[in-house]
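Escalated from tier 1: NAP holo job.
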Amino acid sequence: MNMLVLGATGATGRHLTNFLIDSGHQITIVVRSPEKLPAAVKDASNVKVVKGTVLKMNDEALDQLLNNCDVVFSCLGHNLTLKGMYGHPRKLVTDTALRIVKFFADNKRETPVKYVLMNTTGNVNKLAGEKVSLMERIVVSIIRVLVPPHVDNEKAAEVFSKDVGGNSDDIEWVAVRPDSLIDAKVVTEYSLFQSPQRSAIFNSGKTSRINVAHFMKELGTNDKLWEKWNGQMPVIYNND
Ligand SMILES: NC(=O)c1ccc[n+]([C@@H]2O[C@H](COP(=O)([O-])OP(=O)(O)OC[C@H]3O[C@@H](n4cnc5c(N)ncnc54)[C@H](OP(=O)(O)O)[C@@H]3O)[C@@H](O)[C@H]2O)c1
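Tier 2 regenerated the structure:
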């Protein structure tokens, strides 16, 4: 299969890229700074590196990028700098998803493309009936004002949960929701749930980025797992 990874230079995206390289699929990564990539990625025979961003590339380049693509993985996130948090593009994750969804709506395929979005437990899936306490709602409202990337994560998930929904012939999707992200070197046991099991604000759990990457890779390469989570927003926690 042909797979596209966005955010491959990021802390989660680089694990995902490594897993996909090992899986033997054909991988394309779009990165702003190819020099950040390790030699093992740049030299891998099944990796194509495209310099740029989905938001800035012209229609022809987007067509080349997506016309043979079977699975899109987004590990995009705002850099934790003033420019990354408050500069443009404010809706990096959302606008990237919107552009790709529009491409597949305009360019029909025989089988739907899969989109695996890295999201967050801070994003409540209201369509699934999830509720949080009044205090948590107040805190999240403040976060929305002070931390624009949070709104971007919420809107990005809505591109799929509201706009695409569950009946698109063009695109299928899963939005993976880790809790507080931590770094680890190896994959450990993790658990998946349809909805958060604890407060993302007042009692968050831990999720290793490498575990998120592992689950995303499994979603994109294992049809049974895809069928289980298609159109949902699974929450992932480390077991330990
Ligand atoms: N922090 C948490 O506890 C937590 C919890 C749950 C979910 N999340 C979410 O998880 C996601 C990924 O997390 P992470 O730690 O793996 O992220 P990360 O290490 O910051 O990686 C972000 C990726 O996005 C790319 N990027 C940033 N700004 C860009 C732009 N303007 N145009 C194109 N690409 C851009 C970066 O590219 P460059 O290398 O070129 O900068 C990098 O590849 C984020 O959306 C975050 O909100 C975070």
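Residues 2-238 form a domain with the Rossmann fold fold (CATH 3.40.50.720).
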